[in-house]
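Hi team,

Filling in the usual template for the complex we talked about on Friday. All components are listed, including any nucleic acid strands or ligand strings, so the model treats them as one assembly.

SUBMITTER: L.P.
PURPOSE: interface mapping
COMPONENTS: two
RESIDUES: 387
SEQUENCES:
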Amino acid sequence: MNAETLKGHLELLLLAAVQSGPAHGYAIADTLRSRSRGTFDLPEGTLYPALHRLEHAGLLASRWSEVNGRRRRVYQLTAKGEKSLATRQDEWRDFSRAMQAVVGGLA
Amino acid sequence: MTPGRLDEYLRALEDALLGRGLDPSRIVDEAREHLVDAIEEGLRRGLTREDAERAALERFGPPQLLAAQAPTPRSYTMARLTHALDVAIGNWRWMTGATALAAIVAGAVSYAVLPAFYRSESVISVVSQPPRFPPSLDSRRDSFEHMQSITTTILSDARLERVRKDFGLGPAPEVRRNIRILVVPEQPATNAISAFTVGFQSPDPRLSQRVTERLTSLFIAENFEDRAMAGRDIGDQFRVTKAPSLPTDPLRPGVAKMTVSGAFAGLALSLVALVWRKEQ
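RESULT (copied from the run log):
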């Protein structure tokens, strides 16, 4: 998929990727790739600036933690992040339904 | 294996971030962990170390791309402040506890360590001569100004010099800090248009009483001289309505200040500790 198209939705994707629980950057990249069956394949390094921005906005919190004997920065949703994710998910559902109604019929 | 390919990449990333005035430490640490994971995964898939490294670095993207997308220093500073505020609000119970504890400890320690003071006090009434009824605002203001000018005279270095020598007191500014002169509310039952208290505090109760006696007599003498110059029965007359007694209740003027300082220190330290803990 075009990286620019994906970039517009990156924040929603990242918030959704940590919805089920805390995760480190590598696991988040893996989740995006596997759930999209390889369609969302961004340069993985660019996830980190985006994660930091979300943290700075107070939507994510992070801490260093030991995972399998290795030190990793683990990200999780804050209360503010959960609210923001719920709102964005609703917006996305409306948007995708509308897109599907208009564009999907042509396929 | 290409020794140092990963290190080379991380150095380039660090340079790119520093070039934008950003703190590289955290993102470089995260990149290292990510790339080690990716290389290990490549090895598990049967790639050679060199191919695994190349594939991991390609998937990670060029250092300049990451640096270009990293939050700018200004938003970073603002974000740190917002973050600190969020942490404080999210942990208000913990912070309140730490603040209260620090205040109690500082208060208790200063109570035990700082010297107690004793303050003796006299009350001097200002009676207008001839009596003016009802006491007008103007007459109250005049007597207040009169009292102020006498106070200024008595607290001057030259006048205090004598008191300091007689009682073996410290430097003049310190003596002035321990003197307290306060206007007391009007007493409507008498013809006094105002009154004020003269007090001196010292760790020695006897000394505080003796210095207060001296200061009180200085006020009376100064007022007497003023009135003698103006004509005996004209102007405000100072009368001692309460002589200084030997104080028995100790004052601890430093304790409140230390308690408040302790509370602030506790608040600041707990905030720093919380933010630091969150960062780890």
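MY TAKE: Chain B touches chain A through 30 residues (CB under 8 Å). The beta strands of chain B are 118-129, 179-184, 192-202, 235-242.

Thanks, L.
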